[in-house]
Amino acid sequence: MQNYCKTIGAIVAASALVAGTASAEIEYEIHTGYSSLYLFRGTDLGQDLIEAGVDMSTEYMGLGLSAGAWYGSFGNKVAPATGLSVDTDFSELDIYGEVSKDLGYFTAAIGYIAYLNRDAEAAGLLNQNFANDDAQEVYFSVAQTYYGIDFSLTYFWDIEADNNGYTELAMGKGFELSSCLTLNTGVAIAYLWEEGDFAHITAKVALDWAFTETATLSPFVAASFELEDGYNGGGDDELVAGSMLSVSF
Fold it and tell me: Is 223 within the bounds of a domain?
């Protein structure tokens, strides 16, 4: 899933803005890409992830509204609890929305994410730890930029399933190499409040090539290192590479 990323209410609100508020400017982005691994919160959930998504955002009465959907297809998922694998394909659909407010000292946001894993259910593998069941989360975040570095702190509150109080501190900085090339770097460290342990630290480097005014190609590499207790049953140190193509309008 994209961080990534968000409320059903925001989706409805944004749709209403499209229909009834001509003065509200709505921005859209579509994106697709490939990753050698489906790396979610430091855990390898599968191989050869092919993904696609759409996002939209606007501002209304001083509030930032955003919503979107993400779809991923991947295969040969490994079960962390057993070490076994299933030679089959899986897919996941995420729907998300967010409402944010710039408070001056920081930007606060509340969002919603629904994770839908229908292929896993159809395969009858949910109780064997080969795949995650459908789940929902509400998250709360604060973000600000200091000395050119973007900071964010996000707590994810699980509605379904159990995420052990997953909380993530993220930092990122972009370096403009030319008028069309930007080197983006980021690092995130995760903490599990219910376990009282750090889960992982993940670093990512992406080279964004804006080859047109609206289209960007972003090859990337990321490395994740398990700390005291990996997310959702643990995981190993992982290295993933891939590329994303995004178009905004």
Answer: yes
